[in-house]
Every structure is written in structure tokens, then in C-alpha cells.
Amino acid sequence: MKKNFFFLILFYCSGIAEAQDINNLLLKNYRPVSIYKIPETKMGKAKYPVIDFHSHDYPVDDAGVDVWVKTMDATGIAKSIILSYSTGAKFDSVVAKYARYKDRFEVWCGFDYTGYGTPGWEQHAVAELERCYAMGAKGVGELGDKGLGEFYSYPTPGWGLHIDDIQMKPLLQKCAELHMPVSIHVAEDAWMYEPADSSNDGLMNAGTWKVDMSKPGILGHDALVTTLANAVRDNPATTFIACHLANCCSNLSMLGDMFDKYPNLYADIAARYGEFAPIPRFAHDFMEKYADRLVYGTDMGVTPDMYHITFRILETADDHFYKQDIFDYHWPLYGIALTNKTLQKIYNGNGRKILKAGLR
Predict the structure, then answer these.
(1) Which of 124, 158, 313, 355 has the lowest CB atom count within 10 Å?
(2) Integer Cα distance of 84 and 141 in angstroms
């Protein structure tokens, strides 16, 4: 018995040694722990009340919604925008789920592409938009185009239809008339278009979320950002919110150029904290410069820990920390230490300005 136990321990230990052999360690298993003994800020509530402009219908039932509201209370989230993608019965069901907390949630609708490609489909889509507005939708989103068209829509996607297509004009004009902001996701971040090899700076995400540019008719990153710029330019009375910093995290100047040209464009910072936290000085300067055009967002679930890490990145000057259970990168993160004035604008000031026109 003792002999078997000895060999079991030897086998187990040798397995650990082999797994940790630098020559056999896989990059996907690299989970560094910061060695630096430096200050670490423990976060509670956000410094100011927060409007989360990028969340989704995560809870499966009423009890889940109740738990979420308690988490929002504890972390300082005053209101969450539920981007439902939906129209029709699906949209109505999401509205009903959050009806008990009308002051804490807004449910935004999608566009209905039913009949796309046949004459008159736009009229039907506008009618459904007006119906959703009457049901309580104060905005539209999240629209989404990763190269093959507007497919973030339930129940009917708009494959092949880009946001700057002339057929979108009646819908975008109706949004302006109804004062409904349009939240839109175009493209993905640049490393998802690069070869998934040893030179890819964002390999851990790029390997999972790689964009397949071999698909016929697919638009690349810059072309998709251009479709957004075209739509914003051609619909100056419509307010647009570019999700995820317009997926320009590796070149924020692209987004800055659009901000400079188009006063009707905003951007949310949702689910890109892991992308801008590694460049804290540049990200700080960018957000300070465009403080009037950015809104807070998450798009990462509803746990307290998720909210806390976003506050830590925005509010503190903490150095060299990791959060790989939320951001799947191998690089360290840094707090960007925004000024109080900018924090207040991103957390709620700009959001109040955007939503004010839609108050009824």
C-alpha cells in the first residue's frame, strides 16, 4: 500500500513538473500573477451614479432581475440600457420582464428586416419601429455588422445590408424624428483580422474571435468603420452611439477623427477595458479630450466583480494588475485615473444629455 502511494505521489508531481516545463507551457495557459508589491485599490460603488449604455437581457427570470437590481444598488448603477436587438413578440417579452423597474431599466429595440429585398419592406420596418416606440423603446440597438451585414436582429437578420445603405435611410430618419439614439456595433478590433501567430499582440482573443476574411463579400475593419462614418454624416439629426469605441482600440485616432467631424456621434466603452487599460496614458488623454462624447457601458454580465474592475480601470492609477477571468489577454492592465469632471460625464452626464430628448 505504501509503495503504491509513493508511486502515485511521484506520478502526480512529475505531471506537474512536465505541465510547468517552459518548453511545454502553452500560451493559452499562461496566467501570470503580478510580482509587484504595490498599492491595490479595492472598489465599491462608482464615484458617481452610472448609466450603463450597453447591457443585455441576462437574467432568465424575475428573480434574476431582482438580484441584478440589488447589485446595481450596491455598485452605483443608476440605470441599465437593455439592448434587446429585438422586435415583435420577443421585444414585448423583454419589456414585460423589466416592467417592475421602469426607473432602473430601458429596453431598446432592434430593426425589423422582415421582407428585406422586396418592395416596400422599409415601410413595414418603420411601422414596427413606431410600434416598439409606443411600447416604451427609447432607443435602437444593438445593431451589429461584422462584415456581412446587419445581423444583430431578432427575429429577422439583415444580411447584406450595411448601415450606410440607402434602404436604411427611412429607419434612421424615423429614429431622428422620434429622438431614438442608435447603438451600433461595427467591425471587431484590429488583431482579430491579423494572422493568429506569434506576432499578434491580441492573440488570446484573436485566436477565438478571428474574423474570417475569406467569406465572399465581407467588409474589412476600415471599410466597416467607413460605413458608420457615412451613416453618421448622412443622418445629422440622428444620434449614433458606436459600441466598443467603434472597435478602434488599436487606433483611437480613427474614432477621434469621426468625433471631430460629426457632433451626432458618441461611443460607449463597453467590453474594451482590457484593450485600452494597457495604454493608460494615451487612453487617459483620449478620454479627457473627448470627454463629452463617451458613455459608460459593460456588455460583460452582471456580477459585482465585473462592475468593480471597470471602476478600478477608470478611476484609479493602479499599476500592473491582471483580470484574466474577465479579459482574456496575457498583458497587464493599468488604471487610467480620469479626472472627476470626465468621470462624471462618462458615468452619467453625457448619458443624461442623450436620453433627455427621448423623455416622454
Answers:
(1) 124
(2) 7
Q: For position 200, what pLDDT does the model report?
A: 87
Q: Any idea which of 55-59, 197-201, 210-214 has the lowest mean pLDDT? A: 197-201
Cα 177 to Cα 156: distance, rounded to the nearest angstrom: 24
Element (H, E) at 54: strand 50-55
Mean pLDDT on 184-188: 97
Beta-carbon contacts of 5 under 8 Å, excluding residues fewer than 6 positions away, are: none
pTM exceeds 0.70:
yes
Cell output for 89: 413578440
CA distances from 31 to 27, 245, 283, 298, 321 (A): 9, 27, 25, 23, 12
Per-residue burial over 277-308, b = 16 or more CB atoms within 10 Å of its CB, e = otherwise: bbbbeebbebbeebbebbbbbbbbebeeebbb
318 in Cβ contact with 332 (< 8 Å): no
Determine contact, residues 101/124, Cβ cutoff 8 Å: no
Q: What is d(CA 139, CA 157) in angstroms, rounded to the nearest whole number?
A: 18
